[in-house]
Amino acid sequence: MKNVTITLDEETARWARIRAAELETSVSRLVGEMLRERMLEEESYQAAMQKYLSQKPRGLKGPGVIYPKRETLHE
User: Fold this and answer.
1) What averages of pLDDT result for each successive group of 10 residues across the chain (75 residues)?
2) Domain boundaries defined on the chain
3) Quick check: 46 and 37 in contact, CB under 8 A?
């Protein structure tokens, strides 16, 4: 574990103390867990994006099939 000092405005600090008390944990652990969740979300998003972008492009139509006219789609 690594100690980090953060600065919060009064309203945010009050909310954090109340929320930590509701969850029967410390503000430090609450903030640490929130940051970890955010980190995992971003890592998951990046992995999904990388997987999507690494796929070979696929055509939207088969050979010999023409796209419908714009006017037809918007009727």
Assistant:
1) 93 98 97 97 97 90 85 87
2) 1-55
3) no
